[in-house]
Amino acid sequence: MKDRRRVAVEHQQIHAGGAIVVVLEPLSWTERKRERVALLAGHMPFGLAKYFPGPSEYITLVREPIARVVSDYFFCRQNPTNPAYPFASTLPLVEFVAGGYGSSQNCYAQWLSNAAFGAKFRSEDEMLEAALKNLSQFSLVGLTEQSDLSIEWICKRYDLAVYPMTKVNKNVSTPEGRSISEEEIHAIRGHNLLDLAIYDVCLKLFMETNSAGSEEPIGDSLAGIQQR
User: What's the pTM value of the predicted model, to 2 decimals?
Assistant: First the structure.
């Protein structure tokens, strides 16, 4: 690395709707032990890195929300141990989304704002504002649809070797060629307006960065989100 920056990889939900488990055991470690941690990765509250001494950076990847919800639905249908399985296996997609099962409603807004971890907001607008404020502190935000380029940017930023992508963690539950009806799109969109707004910001910044050929993808430009 050019300098020693801890990397906190926030794993946003890409398909699976599982139970949220926050493991806080590392917070009981000594300060010296926490200081040696170079990588935090997984589903975690935004801000967790502040408990680890020294500079840290947040990075994440996001997926187009409608595609993510569809993938989440079919993933839950095929996994009996998933808390949303009873609903995904018996309800059509529209009803699954309307019921808020799995991670079918504004997943990114809830995770980025920390609502998924207990943060309370008076309105959805307030939640969105908090999510975008936290997102503005990320050093890099990639897109699942552009995973190869996103990984290339991550490796370049942290002086890592670039290896070929594998599909070992790919969700294979979604039926090949399964088309989404207008009714389903309308239902998903209606329950994911915050996520669509967040994704739109990420997509625009990604496209701008790619066009500019910036050596520091997303990074500082995210700080301008609140002013747009």
Answer: 0.81
